[in-house]
Amino acid sequence: MVAYNRSQNNETFSQQVYMDKGKYYTFSAWVRVSEGSETTVSAVITTPGNSMRVIASGNAYPGCWTMLKGGFQPEFSLLTDLHFLCYNKTVEFWVDNVSLKEFNQTEWRVHQQRAIRRVRQRKILLQITDKLARPIRGVKVNIKFRKPVFHVGCGVTDTFVKYKKYQEWFLEKGFTASVFTNQMKWYWTESRQGIENYTIPDAMFQFFKDHGIAIRGHNVLWDKPNMNQLWLHAMTPKELLATAVRRLASVMARYFNDIFEWDVVNENLHFHFFEDKIGPQASGMFYHIAHVIDPNATLYLNEFNTLEIPGDIYASPHKYIKKFRDIRSYPGNENLTIGFGLQAHFPSGKPNMPYIRAVFDFLSETKMPIWLTEMDVQNTTNQAVYLEEIMREAFAHPGVEGMIVWAPWKPGANCTGLCLTDDNFKNTRAGDVVDKLMAEWKTPELNGKTNSKGLYKYYGFLGDYTVTLYDPYSLKQIIREIKITNKDQNPVLIPISI
């Protein structure tokens, strides 16, 4: 279909549809404009009161078709118009292959469960033989799951170094990753020009390193103007560039090879402090320097509203991939791995699960890693329910590699955000959800014996295992550490000679 002679953004085309409460509706369409440059377009539905809800946003281009992808889950049944907005009124707007598919809650959950089994679990075969490669029957096998490949972590604040019970609580939960909510940020480590203080982040860092907890580096630079110290604003472009490079070297070299992911330039879709001061390629240059300083770390973008708000046209998946490509176009960055950090700060109201899945699908087409980096849900009656839905959706998607629950604890704080514990370190309802899912996503302890072919078979989650074998004939006990990380779906054969 083609809309032409347009005088308003909403002069395109529409289709009336009926949506059932609680159903999941996935949406896609191919869009294009007749001329000019890229144009922002949105798919929207009208709700009672003639208000609009955006269900997908992206960019349309002349000369090629682009997929628009999203969805909606109505909280009440409604008759609505599905229509498009094209924000350039001077061009023809084209659309083709519009799809709106309906799923009930059972179908949605079954898809998740199948995806989890396909993406996160493998059939594992232990092949036990003697020194002459002959299979041994009847060997007793004990399998203990030690550490998952998929990270579930929790953000912490500076109170972490002051309260031993806070540290004990973190370790007892079994989190495999953490991030400092503020303590590694530039305004924390160098509030006064030229005077750096890493005392608190050093102490936090050392604790997690000593306990084998992966640490995300959040963040090196921040493109939001009011999150930069006043003395940075007064600098000339040349001075700011030199100072920013010094900051990169200071924090990244300090924790070299021990931070596994860095948010190099935070929120550079919504904001552009460094680009305005230094030039449009500032982010690309900073990612290049960051890779030189710490080549073993994965470098991330980190943005809000890409996952949470379909109507934020500044952070749509299309815009995010465009920023990713812009950074990789900087000389030397052509093959750089740049991950997509989705902050996942969900506002009040039900999260749009079909849209969340669409964002994961869209970003994963780049083959770059995806993390939920600051995940929280507003403290409402359904907070725990919504948190579980989001976590399950992320865990089921092959493109997502981990998530950080943004739930730092401070004593005496009135919890208005996401809190997993009270001041006595007793679970909230949200804490119960996180415990339940982390337990569900671990292989339980297993015991058995090898068969006549010397095989012991089981399904297990990807991760690290301790395998203890006891041969009743030779009276040998063997302990092996194994790691299952295979991304392909074939059974994993682990030969062990005793």
TrEMBL record:
Pfam families: CBM_4_9 (PF02018), Glyco_hydro_10 (PF00331)
SMART domains: Glyco_10 (SM00633)
Gene Ontology process terms (BP): xylan catabolic process
Alphabetized PROSITE patterns for the sequence: GH10_2 (PS51760)
Cross-referenced SUPFAM superfamilies: (Trans)glycosidases, Galactose-binding domain-like
Keywords: Carbohydrate metabolism, Hydrolase, Polysaccharide degradation, Repeat
GO molecular function: endo-1,4-beta-xylanase activity
Similarity comment: Belongs to the glycosyl hydrolase 10 (cellulase F) family.
Record protein name field: Endo-1,4-beta-xylanase 5-like
The organism of origin for this protein: Nicotiana tabacum (Common tobacco)
